[in-house]
Amino acid sequence: MTRWLIPLLLFGALLFFLVRGLNLNPREVPSPLIDRPAPAFAMPTLADPGHVLRREELLGRVWLLNVWASWCGPCRVEHPQWLKLAQRQPGVTLIGLNYKDERAAANAWLQDVGNPYTDSLFDPQGQLGLDYGVYGVPETFVIDRDGVVRFKHVGPLTSAVVREQIEPVLKRLGA
Amino acid sequence: MTKRTLLLCVWLVALAASAQTVPAPSNDAALDAHVQALAAQLRCVVCQNESVADSQAPLAADLREQIRRQLREGRSDEQIRSYMTDRYGDFVLYEPPLSGRTLLLWWGPALMLAVGGLALWGVLRRRGRLTDDAFEPDENAIG
Amino acid sequence: MIPTLGHGALVLALVVALAQGALGLASAARANERWMAWMKPLTAAQALLVTAAFAALSISFVQHDFSVYYVAAHSNSQLPLAYRFAAVWGGHEGSLLLWVLMLVGWMQSVAWRSRGLPLVFVARVLAVMSLLSAGFLLFMLATSNPFERLLPPVREGSDLNPLLQDPGMVLHPPMLYMGYVGFSVAFAFALAALMGGKLDAAWARWTRPWTVAAWVFLTLGIALGSAWAYNELGWGGWWFWDPVENASFMPWLAGTALVHSLAVSEKRGAFKAWTLLLALLAFSLSLLGTFLVRSGVLSSVHAFANDPKRGLFILVFLALVIGGSLALYAARAGAVGLGQRFGNVSRESALLLNNLLLVVATGSVLLGTLYPLFLDALGLGKVSVGPPYFDSVFRWLMAPLLLLLGAGPLLRWKDDGLGTLVRRLRWSVASALLVSLLAWALGGAASAWSYVGYALAGWVLGGVVEDLTGWRANWRQLTRAQWGMWLAHAGVAAFVLGVTTVQTHESSRDLRMQAGDTVALAGYDFRFVDAAAVAGPNYAAARGRVEVSRAGQPVTTLWPEKRVYRVQRNPMTEAAIDSNPARDLYVSLGELLPDGSWTVRVQHKPLVIWIWLGCLIMALGGALAASDRRYQRREARA
């Protein structure tokens, strides 16, 4: 009698995993950078090509890195969240990473939608994006005072994401 | 609803068509082949079921370019793979590495075969030991 | 008006399906012939209602009724007529309607061709299929209604996904679903047998043609999907071990095992409990595939919407149907009986081995497809399992299976000896060696696995020839089933030959070309003449012109395109392919570079068409076998 039950039992096990699977997101790629030092950079800024911003200059502050581009639709959709963040979190520095874009188009975009960033790094070849494991635009990183990456969000920010995920992390880091 | 994921990939390709990266494939066939070989071992993180070699996503093109550059600098295959996993995690390796947690994956088929084979052998042996009246009589001849 | 009618038809169909299910089971349990007589008319009613709903949706598409949300989401006023019709199954809701249409189609066929079957049995079969239909109808009406209205209607639709605007896409889903759903017949037959408590060789004879027919459709459906990907996706791949592809491949593997297991159950009455389980398994895998594709549980280029609510519904349905059937199996399968005796070296044991390998192959594909989910669900992080895994595992399983394929049909039923078998294998060995030698002579040195592939293709073909020649004295006695078997096995050999040759000897170049540039590949010269702008019915394109020549003689002109569809604005690569039985020449355009040159990919793929021709031959063999006269004779007699 027992051996006839084997198929049913195996199916039960499968069912367990499928139920769990419904709550998971298979497309999400976890970042290996969490709890590791943010990759170093010395990049010219978008506004002023002559000015180079280095990662070291941001030590001692909690900062957010937002990967954006003028050609990116969802970036436009999430942008109001960034303007709000700039107001609600004055202690946090917002740095943009202008990814694979053209300087003129990017500056025009910021003029159009508003510029919440203290500065935006200009990364036309995507080299810095590669170092940060960027694979979709927009992406957001939270980096602490010691320059360690503590959180990454892929995709546009929504007020829910900001409220439930980003702000708690900022609070924890003493922003 | 629409095949959203596929649209996402294709949309990203479209958007990046207006972006800057324009890889200039070299006409060095050996380097090309080496790039393709390495790229085939990496997963395109955007179009997740394709390798970096096959994917048309701009990120894949960037990664191929990165591989090409690093090969020219003389880096080894292992170093280039580490470069990728440092930034994108184990997920970027197309072939799941043989580690503790993938043990069941790699040995699973052999295990299934062994269990099935044993079961089969057991069944045959049990049948062999039964007397003829446990079976149905031979109806007609072989078809 | 029409969408409302369609919606109404679906609701009515659900009512009928539920009624038929309940009535069928009750009437069989009580052996009430008067109630059982209702089964066939109710089947017809369901068929008519679902067909009406399908027609309503089709009409809505053809007439550009953008007040229907589904039509607006998947069509456009510029969409050519053929694709407007195909768009009916271009999205989740419509494809479900196609599923149910196929299901009632199979039900009606069973009702028509069941004169030789006991009424109680037929009542149960139709009842089970009705309950399945009810489940899908409920799913549609509750979560995925194709007739949902969009009010006020939009002026213009979002257009059908350009990838689906291809002839292959018109045929691929219907064929595939005919196969998936067709296995529900075997499933229902198995449950009916378990419920009735009796299982004999007659049951196997009844089930076999239905199963083979479903298998034929599934084979064609998968082959079409692969050919479509090859033609449409622009980079020459034809199988990606994508979760959705695997979702269709698993029922195929299980179905193949089932077809072979049924042969033994029919001829020798053996393996009955195992065949029952396989019958349940094949359709369960179809259902599982449906779940995987629509629930967002797996990441795939192919998958439909990522909607956990729908996923939950299907999962509950899955649990009830599969869980229920396996529970019934656990309760009743023990009483089924052992069938006739057979020796350790015999056709039966060879088929047992065949089944073992096919089932392990199915399990491996399942393992690989679901492994990322397993690890993620256990909190063990993320891995990705792709072609490197599947390719290597599959080779190791298929090689012994192919070896068996060549030898198995040469074994006698009931009892045989190894010695006599070995003598019968001389053609196979010779053929294996011959093909390998030819491959080496024509293609040069290659990897060990290549030679294994060539040798096995030759081996299988040799086995078919040996079997055939053994019958030359009595060839008039040969049945369609036997011809079908040889044809199908020959198809497998052709398939293996195609795959091995392409994987060993294909070559490609990826490069930047200016107008007038030429690249040489595999003895052909490809000259990129220029690229011009052209316009299609609903797209604008850049069409390249590539002239191909060989040793100075012109071979063909290829016109690869890069299209941008006006509504969805996705760039699509339309590869240009020159096909003949010996090789494919494949050219696709990449990107237009700032200096006016194009990145172009040029490929040479020897014998690639045999991959799909082999599948076609397999399907023809199956069709021939399913039409064997012994199935028809019995029907008329009863």
Layout: helices, strands, pairs:
The complex is a heterotrimer of chains A (175), B (143) and C (638).
Chain A: H1 2-21, E1 42-44, E2 52-54, E3 63-68, H2 73-88, E4 93-99, H3 103-113, E5 119-123, H4 127-131, E6 139-143, E7 149-154, H5 159-172
Parallel strand pairs in A: 3-4, 4-5
Antiparallel strand pairs in A: 1-2, 3-6, 6-7
Chain B: H1 4-17, H2 29-39, H3 58-72, H4 77-88, H5 103-129
Helix pairs in contact in B: 2-3
Chain C: H1 2-30, H2 33-36, H3 39-62, H4 69-74, H5 81-86, H6 92-112, H7 119-143, H8 167-196, H9 201-232, H10 243-268, H11 272-294, H12 308-332, H13 347-377, H14 387-407, H15 418-424, H16 426-443, H17 448-470, H18 480-505, E1 507-513, E2 518-521, E3 524-535, E4 539-550, E5 553-558, E6 561-565, E7 571-574, E8 576-580, E9 583-592, E10 598-606, H19 609-626, H20 629-637
Antiparallel strand pairs in C: 1-10, 2-3, 3-4, 4-5, 4-6, 6-7, 8-9, 9-10
Concise account of the structure shown:
The complex is a heterotrimer of chains A (175), B (143) and C (638). With 175 residues, chain A is of the alpha/beta class.
Biggest sheet character of chain A = 5 strands, mixed
| N→C terminal distance of chain A | 64 Å
Query: How many β-strand stretches of chain A?
Result: 7
Question: How would you describe the shape of chain C?
Answer: globular
Radius of gyration of chain C: 26 Å
Q: Compute the CA-based radius of gyration of chain A.
A: 20 Å
Distance between the termini of chain C: 46 Å
Which residue ranges of chain C are poorly predicted, with pLDDT under 50 across at least 5 consecutive positions? none
Please tell me what the overall shape of chain A is: elongated
Helix-strand string of chain C: HHHHHHHHHHHHHHHHHHEEEEEEEEEEHH
- Percent in strands of chain C: 5-15%
Biggest interface pair, residues each?
Answer: B-C, 64 and 78 residues
The succession of helices and strands of chain A, N to C, reads HEEEHEHEHEEH
Alpha plus pi helix count of chain C: 20
The strand count of chain C comes to 10
Largest sheet features of chain C: 6 strands, antiparallel
Number of helices of chain A: 5
What does this structure look like?
The complex is a heterotrimer of chains A (175), B (143) and C (638). Helices cover 38% and strands 20% of the residues of chain A. Chain A has 175 residues and is α/β, with parallel strands linked by helices. In chain A, the strands form 2 sheets. Chain A has a 5-stranded mixed sheet with strand order 5-4-3-6-7. A two-stranded antiparallel ribbon of chain A has the order 1-2. The longest helix of chain A is centred in the N-terminal third of the chain and has 20 residues, at 2-21. Chain B has 143 residues and is mostly helical. In chain B, helix 2 crosses helix 3 (58-72). Chain B is elongated, with a radius of gyration of 26 Å. Chain B starts with a helix and ends in a 14-residue tail after the last helix. Mean pLDDT of chain B is 75; it is low at 13-24. Chain C is α+β, with helices and mostly antiparallel strands and 638 residues long. Helix content of chain C is 63%, strand content 12%. In chain C, helix 10 packs antiparallel against helix 11 and helix 17 packs antiparallel against helix 18. Chain C is globular. The A-C interface holds A 1, 4-5, 7-8, 11-12, 14-15, 17-30 and C 273, 277, 280-281, 284, 291, 295-299, 308, 311-312, 315, 318-319, 322-323, 326-327, 329-331, 333-334, 370, 372-374, 376-377, 381-382.
